[in-house]
């Protein structure tokens, strides 16, 4: 597979930008469409599959400007409609095209709190970029303006140059809000509520804050230093972060309101209960939830075997079941930890895969093998209770189901065996039962998701919720959007009481 | 639930070691400052401990006792891996970086009638608060404590003082009856009237055979499982066990389950998932402590 070196991409971008800078007349839309779509510089796949450093290296300034110039500045801005938090995308791209990167970043930050994170992990191709006129005109979604990459560039530049300003906090109101969880939804709520002058205390069950951004998403996709910077930013605003504190056990949710003087509580505990397939043999040794595998590797740093105390299973032939981002993360982590072969097994086709297109492409480049229209039906163990093979069946696509994706239909009699010594299950999460079980009156769906109204308020007075605990497993940006909404409601409630 | 006072967030994350006692060659008792855990914990619950937040592992440990007025919990642990060895090396006044809890569903305690509490080895530690709770609920207690040999019997006096009938046995006969705990357990179950409940905590193989011992008599048997865990809050699923043919998470559904339904063989195999790496780390610990001893000895 061909790999463009970062140097060659940078040089090409410099030449192209220089040529445009020579012009004296404004560019026509046709000329903008002719600008080369900028390729994201990346580590060489052969090298990166053995390290945990970030894969995508980020645009050069010239690339960021060129990519931004491709934007046609459509009056109706279809891209904004695709953004869950409604970022003024043409606005920030216009500034970036002119090289005003700080202005671009400020525009994004009016709506999004975590641009460096979202630029990396948002599924842009199904959000803003799906609607992009440039992609439509060039008849390929891959040719849409790479909005996320420019977002990442301007956010990284701001972080690295230290020009980020601590948001202004209004005078103290004397009101106090508890935020349960420290993932994307909770970070958003903490920032928005703190800005209004309310005291904010966050609670994290793990020993490090950041939620899925630190335990789940690997370093090679989202460097942990970026997440830490966001947490540091909250602390600089005066947000208090308590780790090793699990609400429902260490302290009940209601005690926070009734005894500890909190005026409101936000539940942002995420989707923390891995699903298994309910098939024979799934509790054999060598079978893991992706959550466990990734937590060991990321948060517990098992990739650094010389220093980390947490062991991780030494995998040879690995099957990862599922087609989402978590499946890609687990597969690519297994490669980096020295697996001989890694196989993704997914029962639909690549089109239906919920993973970001870029992650699927990266996984392929690194040597992950894909087995589509196939699913495990039984895991087979050896005499020591370790998994040694899995029985699979083949599928074909039938009629579309409720999600609009074509339903996979099992082909009768197509059973066959694949030999594996490790199976990682990445088919999603149910909601964590800890808080609903220990909080009387908190209404949930039959799947255990907390039910909220259109303001993000739960069935309990002063208790709000958002993110995956409400949505089921979703995305960082949706969690942030939910957090925004709940924070606005909390601020409304508290300001009305003053 | 009554909350006597507002939570003191200033103090909660300081875990100073208040007392340390070596109970046997590789079993230690530690009283540690943890006011928030002491205030909330109930019999049957456990904590997750971590000694170094950057590279340390998270391990589940049972709570043997708690003193809410002092704001302390007591843990009893056996040095089986790197973290427990390093913990045993800590002294009074040292601190523990992370302590999360109390975790798990508390023991269901009510007046059942006659309750048999069976503790094997270090399993007596988590059994102690349960026995205390069962006693306070008005149950008649038959306590069976077993160990490999005499000096591995722990908390004997504390357990004896709770028991209406107390039986101690050792595998080698060096103390009490020369028997496995299943022997007196069967005898007690054969009595008329039979006991109303058995709580058995100890090594997996002991719990397995306790469950087998009570099964023919139809005596309900609660076991407390100590499996491999990372987060302890339901997030990783590493602790999962098969109970009654269904997958259950020890950390949020347990740690106590119906012993007659638990697939112990599968659980024991899962406990060995990282055996190779653990053995290496354990070996390394011993080497390091030997080197330390050599260095301390005058030339």
Summarize the structure.
The complex is a heterodimer of chains A (498) and B (299). Chain A is an alpha/beta fold. Chain A has helices at 6-21, 29-34, 45-48, 61-69, 78-82, 89-97, 101-109, 115-121, 133-137, 147-161, 184-195, 212-215, 224-236, 253-258, 290-297, 325-336, 357-366, 434-438, 468-471, 476-496; strands at 176-180, 199-203, 240-242, 264-267, 273-274, 287-289, 317-321, 341-346, 369-372, 374-381, 387-400, 406-410, 416-419, 422-425, 429-430, 463-465.
Question: Any descriptors?
Answer:
heterodimer, A: 498 residues, alpha/beta, five-stranded parallel sheet, 20 helices, 36% helix, 15% strand, B: 299 residues, seven-stranded mixed sheet, six-stranded antiparallel sheet, 15 strands, 29% helix
User: Which structural class is indicated by helix and strand composition of chain B?
Assistant: alpha/beta
Beta-strand segment tally of chain A: 16
The SSE string of chain B, one letter per element, is EEHEEEHEEHEHEEHEHEEEHEHH
- The residue-averaged pLDDT of chain A reads 93
Task: Supply the helix-strand structural class of chain A.
Answer: alpha/beta
Q: Kindly estimate the percentage of residues of chain B that lie in beta strands according to DSSP.
A: 25-35%
Question: What's the number of helices of chain A?
Answer: 20
pLDDT averaged over residues of chain B? 90
> What is the helix fraction of residues of chain A, given as a range?
25-40%
For the report, how would you describe the main beta sheet of chain B? Answer: 7 strands, mixed
**Sheet with most strands: strand arrangement of chain B:** 10-9-8-7-11-12-15
CA-CA gap between termini of chain B: 61 Å
